[in-house]
Amino acid sequence: MRDANDPDTGVDTNDISGDQGVTDPTPAVVNAKAVSPTYHANAATAGKVFFDSPEGTMVCSATVVEDPAHPGKSNLVWTAGHCVHAGKKGGWYRNIAFVPSYNNAGMKAAQLETASRDQVAPYGVWWGDWAQTSQQWIDQGGETGGQGSSYDYAVIHVTPEKGNGGKSLEETVGSALPVNFNAPAVPKVADITATGYPEAKPYDGSTLYQCTDKPGRLSINASDPTMFRIGCSMTGGSSGGGWVETGSDGKPTLVSNTSIGPVTSGWLAGPRLGDVAKGVYDSVSKKFAGQ
Fold first, then answer.
1. What single DSSP character describes residue 2?
2. Residue 38 DSSP symbol
3. pLDDT at residue 127 is higher than 80
4. Residue 225 half-sphere exposure, CB side, CA atoms within 13 Å?
5. Angle at Cα 80 formed by Cα 76 and Cα 86, nearest 5°?
């Protein structure tokens, strides 16, 4: 875990300047704020994903989400498509593991070097036994340029490394977020909070951060759904982390995940979750409905 890198996709801001569709002005940078430890008390559904790629061990961020087939007992994790599949020039990643409340006490990187496994992963390591992303990401996705990013999401079904007494992931961490596949239009959203473990400098991947901003719109391809975009200083490693909106009922819901940002950082963009995303989610839920 200590040596994991990030697989994050990036876009040069010049790549999007001529795109058709609705793109709002580039947002002002919002400096990410460190989440106060313990992370379980303040962001119980957040965690870190590790996986093996041809380039070595990589890292992303992720969120525990509800499972309609197992109310109150979900084993589903939401992340970015590029955290499970390399896109059009690659294949599926292997040995995917989710660590909820990674480094729960917020230790510094130097302290983590000598930390116990229970300190690093207090709620266990959960191995992915199934992952699914959109066909659009598989067909179009790549390391740069933003192609396929409007469909850059994935759902992972996990199982505990140890027996865990039969408890589900949701029961273990005590929470799971509902997913909103029909979020209001961007101008009607007051603000969105993105959560993740940024790895690229000036961050080191050891601690959890959040950015809150009123979203704007970003169109990579006029024929694809317009993405949410917020100002945020988080860097690589935060990919896949959940974007949460508090609805009119006062309850938080997952409305997106970190997908792309410019090479120089400063903002993040995430896909709007619609019918394709719901199809991915429902497919994984149904696959394990009888278990």
1. T
2. P
3. yes
4. 23
5. 115
